[in-house]
Amino acid sequence: LWFGVWLELQRQDLPIRIDSYLNLHGEHFVFFLLDLAPFIFGALAGMVGYQLDFNKLISQGKKEWEATFDAFADPIFIINDAGIIVRCNHMVVDRLNLPFMKVIGRELTEIISEGQIDKVEQVVYHGSEFSWLGRHYDMGIYPIYKKEMSENVICILYDITDRKRTEAQREQSETLFRALFDSSPDAVVLIDPHDPNVSWPIIDCNAIACLMNGYRRGELVGQSIDILNLTTGTEGERIAYLTQLRDAGNTIVVIEHNLDV
C-alpha cells in the first residue's frame, strides 16, 4: 500500500483516488502482491509460531513420558515382532549393570537367559514366572496397536520375590505343622466352631485320634465332635468354652469320650 502511494506521488497523480489505485494494480499485478506481502508474512510468522508451540508441547510430552517410563521400579522392555529389544527403562540397565547400547538390539530371551542361574536352552517367558538375576518375576505382555495391527510389545517384569518368599515360608510352616500333627503321641482333632450346618464339625484328626476312638479318618471328618463324646454339648457350654479359650489363649478341659465303639 505504501509503495503504491509512493508511485502516485512520483506520478503526481494526487489526490489518490480509488480508480487510480485500482488501475495501477490492474496494470501491474506485482504491486498487488507487494501490498499483500505484510499480511502473507504475518500469517506465515503466525503459522511458524504455532508450529513451534506445537513442537514444544510434543517435546514436553515426550520428556514427561520418558521420565514416567524410567521411573517404574519394575524392568520394562519394548520389543518388536521379532523379539528384539527396541527400548527399555533405567531399571533394566541398573539390574544388568550395562549401558543402554549393549541392551538395545538384542533378543529379550537372550537377556533373560543370561540372568538365570540355571541355564536352559529356551526361555518361555509369555505369562510365566521365572528367576532372573537372583529375583523372581512374572511377565506381563501388552501389545502396542497401530492401525489395528500389533507392531511392538511392552513386556513388564513384575517383581514377585516377596510373594514367593511368603509362599515358601507358608508351605514350610504347613509342612512342619503337618509333621507335628501326624507324629504327635496325643490325639489331635481340629474342629470348626463356626460351621453353619454342623455343630462343631471335625475338619481333621491325626492317626492317634482315630486309633483311640476306633474310627477311620474318613469316618470322623465332617462329623460333629459329639460323635466322640458321651453327652452332646449344649450351645451354652460351647459358647463358654470359646470365651474361655479366647481370654486365656489356651485351656485344659476334661472330657469323657465314648470309647465303646
Please give a structural write-up.
The structure is a single chain. By secondary structure, the protein is of the alpha+beta class. 48% of the residues lie in helices and 16% in strands. It has 9 helices and 7 strands. The protein has helices at 2-10, 18-27, 29-71, 90-96, 108-114, 161-183, 207-213, 217-220, 235-248, and strands at 76-80, 85-88, 129-132, 135-146, 149-159, 189-191, 202-205. It has a 5-stranded antiparallel beta sheet, sandwiched between helices. The protein has a two-stranded antiparallel sheet with strand order 6-7. A hairpin with a 2-residue loop joins β3 and β4. α2 (18-27) packs across α3. The longest helix is centred in the N-terminal third of the chain and has 43 residues, at 29-71. It starts with a helix and ends in a 13-residue tail after the last helix.
